[in-house]
Design a protein that fits this description.
The protein has 135 residues and is an alpha/beta fold. 23% of the residues lie in helices and 32% in strands. It has 4 helices and 8 strands; from the N terminus they run E-H-E-E-E-H-E-H-E-E-E-H. The strands form 2 sheets. A 4-stranded mixed beta sheet has the order 1-4-3-2. It has a 4-stranded mixed beta sheet with strand order 5-8-7-6.
């Protein structure tokens, strides 16, 4: 059986979050999107549920972390090239996101990332597996 992953993230403004990720080139599954949440499609087996904070709170008795002040998770996505890493960061910055640090070049692995509108950190990496053994 193929496994799927659904990352659930609280967002302050669902419409703004959807617009932000649409600007990065992600689509949404309309069947699982309404005024409480949106199902963002990352790949055939990876989805991000952007949930309005009030709805997200119904899944836990713990307080919701304010990702603009605390780090609750680092979401890391693989990219097909260094260029794709840089392009996604550039799109995120143009859509109102922030780059929390400079790109990291480790030879076989290149990474950069962004913070979305709610402060969630998205790490983007490209790994050259043919060079990994030489690092």
């Amino acid at each position: 059986m193929n496994k799927q992953i659904y990352v659930n993230l609280p967002v302050k403004n669902l419409d703004s979050a959807k617009a932000f990720f649409t600007n990065l080139g992600f689509g949404f599954n309309a069947q699982f999107t309404n005024e409480q949440g949106a199902c963002m499609i990352v790949s055939d087996n990876i989805y991000v549920m952007l949930l309005a904070e009030s709805f997200f709170q119904t899944f836990t008795h713990k307080p919701i972390a304010d990702a603009s002040k605390l780090t609750e998770v680092l979401v890391c996505l693989s990219c097909d090239s260094r260029e794709e890493v840089d392009q996604l960061v550039a799109k995120a910055l143009a859509a109102g996101g922030k780059a929390p640090r400079a790109p990291q070049d480790h030879g076989f692995m290149y990474g950069h990332g962004f913070e979305d509108l709610d402060g969630h950190i998205w790490e983007l990496v490209h790994m050259d597996t043919s060079a990994a053994g030489n690092a």
